[in-house]
Amino acid sequence: MLAMSKWFTLTPFMSNRFSKRVGFSNSPGSVRAHVNGGGDDTNNSKNNDKKKKKKVVVVGSGWAGLGAAHHLCKQGYDVTVLDGGDGIGSPDNVGIEGFWYPYKNIFSLVDELGIKPFTSWTKSAQYSGEGLEVEFPVYQELPQLPTPLGTLYHTQFVRLPLVDRLTSLPLMAAVIDFDNTDVAWKKYDSITARELFKRFGCSERLYQDIFGPLLQVGLFAPAEQSSAAATLGLLYYLTLAHQKHFDVAFCRGTTKQKIFEPWVESLKAKGCEMLEDKKVTDFNFDEETGCVTEVVCGNETYSVDAVVVAVGITSLQETIKKSAALCKREEFLKVLNLAGIDVVTVKLWLDRKVAIPNPSNACAGFDDLFGCTVFDLNVIHDEHKDDTETVLEADFYHANELLPLNDELVTEKVISYLSKYINDLERACVVDKEIGRFPKRLTHFFPGSYKSMMRGSTSFPNLFMAGDWIITRHGSWLQEKSYVTGLEAANRVVDYLEEGSFAKVIPVEEDEPHIEALRSLNRRLNEVISQVPLSSYFLQ
């Protein structure tokens, strides 16, 4: 159903410190024995073989954690996944997730699992406080134009005049300058998205009606609270790199039901142990080698040869505050500077059919405080396709003010908000509701956050990180980034323990030729400018 790239690459994950392997072969004969397990004795019993397996504990059961476990199980490791109590899929199982065209690694995983969880590519729309602003077609069905012409030409702007749309073109200079390098992140991360749009001449109306609402549902926070670097990275990955990248599909049920549950069963069949309600409180490590030897969960300990930590920021912060090992490491203490975003999900069963314009509808303009996406579950989810009444879900991001309200007040406010965009909603009665509250669950890419975010390797030689907030040069975002960092963490484990072959990570699609040429020219210009006397004297 989904086109797949046939080209793969090994992710450039290895630092000089951990690149132990030279001339590694992917053949089965290249897999080495456990360093403490003796020679290659074919007469050992199966129990002894099992004991020789190196033990890896994965903390977290979302896209990153299961991604790491998935590859390590295939390489013959003894893998245990610890879920902190939020259920399988945490920290990613929040609301309804879109699966965008460039999610090549996730689509490859789904094909490998032999499941078909997705809808077809869907149309969507965006609303501001003034009403319908944008209708997004299925871009791959339309003539492909060079970026950004395809996005500008094929997108149906309902209210925005052409002159306002054209003020977005100077922003391409920043898009070209931001090449996802460490230098680019440090340059743009210190300013807000609003300041970015102001510097590059976006009109007030373009910002208020298009870019502002888009960020409220893309980065889950208002533009004045969002990093310009994260804004450029997300906009390029999903909307500007290639015209068809903004095409989106959805799971035909919850992501947990359609993907995570069959995925977990597949992992269990490979020998992976899944342990729920296990909150990590500390790590024991060898003072001489610096390596983690045990993962501590209260009164329980799990011995390890390597660890992958794949949890959200808030969960890790809780662990750091309790952990004698982590609270002494600067890289982990910096994580305490980071923040999460509150999410409230509202699923409503109505007493009648109400016409919802598109399967997914991004909405903003609620006093500029938060944004939401409204989903027509009668179209998206199989279980509601034959329902005679409307079933919808609205996922609210940056929902600080909704979080403490009781269910009745949340429902009352949601009906009031959504009635601006959905005709006849006020006349419908809510016959059932399901409210989900997820405090600090999503990553907040606020200005200045980059310097506190972690890399995949840590000061513990055998402890590795994964998640959508971990620094990677892959270029992906959201669930795809989480899954990719999980594969990268698995590769670091393979490299460190010197057993197994590396996971093949599908790279993001290459820049279009004119973008590649402009970025090359921009890099040369920056190199020349850096040689000019006093070029670094003034604040950049």
From TrEMBL:
Recorded coiled-coil stretches: none
Domain Amine oxidase span(s) in chain numbering: 64-493
Taxonomy, superkingdom: Eukaryota
InterPro entries assigned to the protein according to its UniProt record, in alphabetical order: Amino_oxidase, FAD/NAD-bd_sf, Zeta_carotene_desat/Oxidored
Disordered, as annotated region: 29-53
Name assigned to this protein: Amine oxidase domain-containing protein
Species, as recorded: Gossypium arboreum (Tree cotton)
